[in-house]
Amino acid sequence: MRHRLTVRVQPKAxxxxxxxxxxxxxxxxxxxxxxxxxPAEGAANTAVEALVAKALGLxxxxxxxxxxxxxxxxxxxxxxxPDLAARISGLAGDxxxxx
Length: 99
Hints:
It contains 2 helices and 5 strands; from the N terminus they run βββαββα. By secondary structure, it is of the alpha+beta class. It has a single domain (about 1-95), classed as YggU-like (Conserved Hypothetical Protein Mth637, Chain: A, 2-Layer Sandwich). A hairpin with a 5-residue loop joins strand 2 (about 15-25) and strand 3.
């Protein structure tokens, strides 16, 4: 089953970490995260995929950036079981995420 997750990325951070949930101006939720990678040659996107996969206990190949490749706001597609939606919502200790 495929799930969607919107993230806002801060590249060139001091550590790779999930920051928590926030909302855009229209009230759509997104997960804030930081990665050490530079936003060049897809390095930050690869780091985002690896960080989210690790947080969800999935292989790196189960997570991919599908939109926003060159933007801070990105949409991820995550391949996993139906109960993965609950784990996505629980990322960063909050329950406001969406699949």
